[in-house]
Design goal:
single chain; six-stranded mixed β-sheet; 6 strands
């Protein structure tokens, strides 16, 4: 083998080992240090109900159980610096685990919004999020924000809507 070929082989091996050492397939570690989470339901309710009314739909009311579901999801996203529905488990499992096994249910997540109204307005301008907020059977909501100043987005938002209270209803659906 020539000197140049040996050099390239050695370089390629070193590069492969370096890349292998960097490769991780696990989720980012969860760290709640410097993360604060708050209920934003009252702040978002009027904007959400105004939007629903403009489309001929009835209002939703704030649900304490959905606030907890939204807070948990927002905290999980902020703690892992990840904007995704699956960061704390799939939505159906989370909503069923909170007692909404017989309710139609949807969830919106977002990041970097300055206020609950800003989050609602951003979702209005996104077709899938808009569709969720126009769920005709929705009667209940919970909304939360988690602040993480050292994260990529600074804050993470969750809005959960269901057709019935926990433990009531006739069916389960998720979007």
């Amino acid at each position: 083998m020539s000197r140049l070929s040996s050099f390239h082989l050695g370089l390629a091996t070193a590069l492969a080992l370096t890349l292998a050492a960097c490769n991780t397939t696990s989720q980012p570690k969860m760290s709640s240090a410097n993360v604060t989470v708050r209920d934003q339901s009252a702040e978002g309710l009027a904007a959400l109900n105004k939007f629903r009314a403009s489309h001929g739909l009835g209002p939703v009311v704030i649900d304490a159980n959905l606030i907890e579901v939204a807070k948990y999801q927002s905290m999980a996203m902020a703690s892992r610096d990840a904007l995704t529905h699956e960061v704390s488990g799939d939505f159906t499992s989370r909503i069923n685990g909170a007692g909404f096994t017989n309710s139609a249910a949807v969830e919106n997540v977002g990041a970097s919004h300055d206020s609950a109204v800003d989050a609602i307005n951003a979702w209005i301008n996104s077709p899938y999020h808009k569709e969720n907020m126009l769920m005709k059977d929705a009667t209940r909501m919970g909304m939360a924000r988690a602040d993480s100043p050292n994260s990529r987005y600074r804050n993470y938002w969750t809005l959960d809507l269901t057709s019935d209270a926990a433990g009531a209803g006739a069916k389960m659906a998720s979007n």
